[in-house]
């Protein structure tokens, strides 16, 4: 089961069923051919004429979600993401269709922030579309393994079948075009929740001032960068090995890695974005509760992405009522923490006497220094006396481990959202 769920994290699905949907949705032809921009335009025009068509709206949200990664990959390719000779070296099948850009543009820190902003804007657009779906009976059957995306910006369309070719049998690959997941109303909340989760991280990255880290280490990841230290991009940047071959250690790479670690402390450039990140996390929690309301109300059993206890999903993983009940307790507890009603236990001093108000970390942001957070001093401004979250209790984790299995909970959490 862990193997199947790990595939969820990276590829979104694993082919274990082969039923065909009776009618293709409007979005399918554009997703099959990788024409995402054309699909978005066509569906937006359709919705202006047929505003009540939530199947088309669902399809548009899916296309917009994939567009966010297509735009991200295109920007990285245009600015010369290092894929073979740099610190960002990518192995295996990915490197087969991810060649370096022979004529990349020079990347500045302003450009990098704009790349992040575009990604956040795209995800916000997808979330807005998905959240506008009202029909509780909406369905969106999609051949998920045949969806094509220009994921790496070089014009090469890739799909799930290609990405997973090394872990599946030839017989399974032949069934890809017939493998359909029947996405429904709960799944719209599921995808909207993931849009919020990713937006929250994007807003945090835009809140901080990463100029110094960019100046000192961006050359590890991009071919041409605008930096006040031109010697960093001069000479050989073949960082394939820390050992550096027969001449000994690769000293430039080692020093760059140490600089990258050392620079993990950030002043805030746009602190108001931390509140926006918090709002996204709260919306994610809201979608997580809403999706289960719709899942539990379902009475059909049609190629379910996430089944209720009376259904069989395409992953063939049994979801029990106890799993649902325990997960909803986890979701509610996360909401209490985000609202500041419960505190995260502090890991220094006398145990149980005070905790960290996570909400204030976002609403009263300060310099971010992960090392001082580990030490505890960065948490000091947010310490309060109050109710400690049940996540710190052995009873809560005992229930989680009994329900999901000691090693499965966090993997299942990616699936359950």
Task: Provide an overview of this structure.
By secondary structure, the chain is mostly helical. It has a domain at 15-211 and 270-298. The chain has 17 helices and five strands. The chain has a three-stranded antiparallel sheet, with no helix packed on it. The protein has a two-stranded antiparallel ribbon with strand order 1-2.
Tally the helices. 17
Q: Could you give a short account of the major beta sheet?
A: 3 strands, antiparallel
Q: Could you tell me the strand content as a percent range?
A: under 5%
Order of helices and strands: HHHHHHEHHEHHHHHEEHHEHH
Q: How many distinct beta strands?
A: 5
N-to-C terminal Cα separation, in Å?
17 Å
Low-confidence stretches: 1-23, 85-92
Assembly type: single chain
The whole-angstrom Rg is 23 Å
Strand order in the largest sheet = 3-4-5
Average per-residue pLDDT, rounded, comes to 87
Signal peptide: 1-23
Keywords: Signal
Organism: Gimesia maris
Protein name: Tetratricopeptide repeat protein
């Amino acid at each position: 089961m862990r193997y199947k769920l790990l595939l969820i994290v990276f590829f979104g699905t694993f082919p274990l069923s082969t039923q065909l949907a009776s009618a293709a949705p409007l979005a399918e032809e554009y997703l099959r051919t990788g024409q995402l921009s054309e699909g978005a335009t066509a569906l937006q025009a359709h919705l202006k004429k047929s505003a009540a068509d939530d199947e088309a709206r669902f399809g548009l949200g899916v296309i917009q979600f994939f567009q966010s990664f297509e735009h991200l990959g295109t920007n990285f390719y245009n600015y010369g993401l290092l894929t073979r000779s740099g610190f960002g070296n990518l192995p295996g099948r990915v490197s087969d269709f991810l060649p370096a850009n022979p004529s990349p543009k020079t990347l500045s820190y302003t450009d990098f922030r704009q790349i992040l902003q575009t990604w956040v804007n795209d995800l916000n657009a997808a979330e807005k579309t998905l959240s506008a779906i009202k029909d509780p009976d909406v369905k969106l059957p999609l051949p998920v393994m045949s969806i094509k995306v220009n994921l790496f910006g070089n014009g090469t369309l890739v799909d799930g079948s290609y990405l997973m070719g090394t872990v599946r049998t030839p017989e399974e690959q032949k069934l890809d075009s017939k493998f359909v997941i029947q996405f429904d109303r709960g799944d719209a909340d599921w995808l909207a929740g993931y849009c919020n989760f990713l937006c929250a991280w994007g807003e945090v990255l835009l809140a901080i001032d990463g100029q110094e880290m960019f100046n000192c280490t961006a050359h590890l990841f991009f071919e041409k960068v605008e930096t006040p230290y031109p010697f960093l991009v001069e000479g050989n940047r073949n960082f394939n090995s820390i050992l550096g071959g027969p001449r000994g250690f690769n000293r430039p790479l080692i020093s760059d890695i140490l600089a990258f670690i050392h620079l993990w402390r950030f002043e805030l450039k746009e602190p108001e974005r931390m509140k926006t990140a918090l709002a996204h996390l709260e919306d994610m929690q809201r979608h997580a509760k809403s999706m289960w309301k719709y899942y539990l109300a379902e009475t059909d059993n049609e190629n379910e992405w996430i089944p209720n206890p009376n259904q069989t999903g395409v992953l063939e993983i049994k979801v029990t009522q106890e799993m649902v009940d325990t997960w909803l307790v986890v979701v509610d507890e996360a909401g209490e923490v985000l609202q500041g009603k419960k505190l995260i236990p502090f890991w220094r001093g006398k145990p149980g006497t005070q905790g960290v108000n996570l909400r204030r970390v976002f609403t009263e942001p300060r310099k971010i220094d992960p090392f001082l957070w580990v030490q505890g001093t960065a948490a000091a401004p947010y310490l309060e006396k109050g109710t400690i979250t049940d996540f710190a209790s052995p009873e809560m984790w005992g229930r989680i481990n009994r329900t999901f299995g000691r090693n499965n909970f966090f993997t299942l959490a990616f699936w359950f959202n």
